[in-house]
Amino acid sequence: MSDLFEDAVRGLQHLAPLPQRLRPRTLAELVGQQHVLGEGSALRRAIEDDRPPSMILFGPPGVGKTTLARIVAERTGAAFSELSAVSARVDDVRAVIRQARDRLGGNTQRTILFIDEIHRFDKRQQDSVLHAVEEGVVTLIGATTENPYFQVNSALLSRCTVIELEPLADEDLRIVLDRGAREIDATVPDDVAVAIVRRAGGDARAVLQTLELAWQTAQAEGAPLEARHVDDAARKRPLRYDRAGDQHYDHASAFIKSMRGGDADAAVYYLAVMLEAGEDPRFVARRMIILASEDVGNADPRALVVAVAAAQAVEHVGLPEAQLNLAQAAIYLARAPKSNAAATAIWSARRDVREEGAKQPPAMLRSTGYGGASARGHGEGYLYPHDDPAGFELDYLPDELRGRSYYRLSGEGEERREETRGDHDG
User: What is the C-alpha to C-alpha distance for residues 283 and 280, in angstroms, rounded to an integer?
Assistant: First the structure.
C-alpha cells in the first residue's frame, strides 16, 4: 500500500512548482553560500560528518535556509522534526521534545528540530525549546528572514551558531536559471536570462517562479520567450526590506552616511529604496533634520531650514508628491559644506555638566530683576554689548570654566567666512 502511495506522489511531482521540483538535496547541488559552506569549511564538515550544531539560519527569502535544513535532514542519522512558527503552539514544541527525550533514552538516537520562521515565536515559545537545546535533547535549526539579534532572545542565541546566508550573486542565479530551463525544456535567450536574474534580487525562488510563469505565458501565445513575458511575470522586483529590523536600520544608516559623506547620488538611491519599501517618510524627514544640525550645522545654516521645510511638506502634501521635497532636501544636505562643530559643542558641554555638575553663572550675568539682587553683586561688571563693544570681549562662562572652548569653527562654508571675519577666535 505504501508503495502505491509513494508511486502516486512521484507521479504528481511534475505538477509541483518549479522551485519545489528543483530543490537541492545535497550540498553539492546547493548553489552559493560558499562563505559558510565552501569545501573544508567548519559548517560543511559538521554537516557531512552528521554533527550539525544548533544554529539559526538568517537571510532573505530564496537563499537556501529551508533547503539547507532539508539537506541536513537527508544526511543525518538523527530523527528530524519540522515545525512552522506560524502555526506551531507551545504544546507542539513540548511534544517534539518529549519524543526526543524518549528516543535519546531508548536507543540514543538524536533529534534535530527545525523551526521555520523562528522569529515569529514569542518569548514564551522560544523559552519552551531553550532547556532542550541547552541539555542537548534536541539540535535546533531555526530559519528566519529577520535579524535574530533583534527577534530571538539572547539566551537561545547564546546556545546557537548564527549563520548568515547572503543573497545569491548573479552568476549563482544564472546556474539556477539554467537548471530550471532544462527542467521545463525552455529556450531562454541571453537578454531574457539577464532580465530574469536582475529582477530576482538575489532570490533563487524568484528566478524559478518568474521563469516558469514567463515560459508558460510564451507557450500559450505560441511565441518565443521575450523580455515582455518576464515583465508580465515579475511586475515588481522583490525588495529585501523590513521596517522594524535589519534592512530598516542598514538602509537608514547608508542614507545618513551618504549625505554626511557628500554623495548625493547614493543618498537619493537609498532614499528611493526606503520609499519603495514603504518606509514612513516622516522617519526619513526626521533623520534629515538631525543631520542638518549634526553634520552641516553652521557651515550652511540654511540646511536646517531646507530639512524642516521637507518635513513640513511631508505633512502637508504626503506621498507620492513629497518624494520630490525629500529628494531635494537629501541632495541639498549631501552637497552642503560639512561641520559637526555645533554637535560637538553641545556634546562636550553636556559631558562637562555630567562630570563636573552645573556651575553657577558669574555674578555679572545673574538676574537683577528683584529687590536685593544688586546688594548681592548681581549684574556687577556686566557690559551691554550694544552700548559698549567691550561687552563682546567678556568671558561669559562660569568662573571655574573660564577659557574653555566648546564651539570650534570647522573652517567650512559659513564657518570659514566667519573665521575669516574674526568673529570668533576658534
Answer: 5
